[in-house]
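Q: I'm building a small set of examples for a reading group on sequence design. Run inverse folding on the following structure and report the sequence directly after it, with nothing in between.
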């Protein structure tokens, strides 16, 4: 089989949550630039409109919907809008998420008392769990009936290496939310395999995006993450495109319940 056929995403109907920035935007670009028909869903109407305009200017078939992924009604609306526009949903990237704030140590590894676990506000914990974990459950509830109806589909969830790795510079609510996401993906993959619905995760290490106020855009803030990476880099959203195309295409036909780690070796441990 030729690579062009194996990794072809042309014509696929693809829904991307959190698709107006960072990793979701990279997924949207990878799909749109290779002929997929996409629906970008995001809570931010300005960046959403800009994303749709830019992708259309490059000739892609793109729609956008303003959606809050914590709201089941919004998710039902965007699923219905995608089906109304494209007739089906072949691939859904369940990607939207937020930071839980910095971890309990600063860049120089001194303690941050205001970031200790007893200081985490209840509101922050609830918001992070709602946005990163409960939204994934609600997204599946909205997507799965349509995918069963059409005889299958693929759901690709953005988890994180924080799902399995402890963190000093990442907040506890975030780590807990992504651990829940990772196991939910495996459980959903098991339940949905019979219906030809493949469920997989992409687990990035640190990536320069707008998450957490875009803190990784500052070179000082990146330093501890670069030190912790055997490749001594923080990823760009472009680095996630290969995994996205693989999981959306025939190349991964027999892959479900997997997690593709894209982290420059961070989870291997520190090196020189
Ligand atoms: N950047 C990293 O270092 C990193 C590492 C591992 C995993 N991730 C995960 O990648 C995913 C994307 O994050 P990113 O880094 O690209 O961040 P980002 O802030 O650049 O993009 C996230 C997008 O999601 C949207 N969004 C936020 N809350 C939403 C909501 N309630 N409903 C709909 N849309 C919402 C935002 O408006 C934004 O466009 C998240 O799940 C994040 O946890 C990020």
């Amino acid at each position: 089989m030729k690579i062009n056929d194996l990794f072809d995403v042309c014509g696929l109907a693809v829904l991307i949550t959190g698709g107006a920035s960072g990793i979701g935007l990279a997924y949207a670009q990878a799909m749109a630039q290779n002929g997929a028909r996409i629906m970008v869903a995001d809570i931010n109407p300005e960046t959403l409109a800009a994303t749709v305009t830019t992708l259309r200017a490059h000739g892609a078939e793109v729609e956008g919907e303003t959606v809050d992924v914590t709201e089941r009604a919004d998710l039902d609306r965007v699923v219905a809008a995608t089906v109304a526009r494209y007739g089906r949903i072949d691939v859904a990237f369940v990607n939207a998420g937020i930071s839980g704030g910095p971890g309990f140590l600063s860049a120089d590894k001194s303690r941050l008392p205001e970031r200790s676990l007893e200081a985490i506000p209840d509101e922050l914990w609830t918001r992070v769990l709602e946005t990163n974990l409960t939204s994934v459950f609600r997204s599946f509830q909205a997507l799965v009936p349509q995918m069963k109806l059409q005889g299958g589909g693929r759901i690709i969830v953005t988890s994180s290496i924080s799902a399995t790795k402890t963190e000093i510079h990442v907040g506890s609510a975030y780590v807990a939310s992504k651990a829940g996401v990772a196991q939910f993906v495996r459980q959903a993959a098991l339940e949905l395999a019979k219906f030809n619905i493949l469920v997989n995760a992409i687990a990035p290490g640190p990536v320069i995006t707008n998450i957490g106020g875009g803190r990784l855009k500052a070179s000082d803030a990146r330093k501890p993450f670069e030190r912790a990476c055997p490749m001594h880099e923080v990823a760009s959203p472009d680095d996630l495109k290969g995994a996205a195309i693989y999981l959306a295409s025939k190349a991964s036909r027999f892959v479900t319940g997997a997690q593709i780690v894209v982290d420059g070796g961070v989870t291997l441990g520190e090196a020189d």
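The first strand starts at residue 13 and ends at 17.
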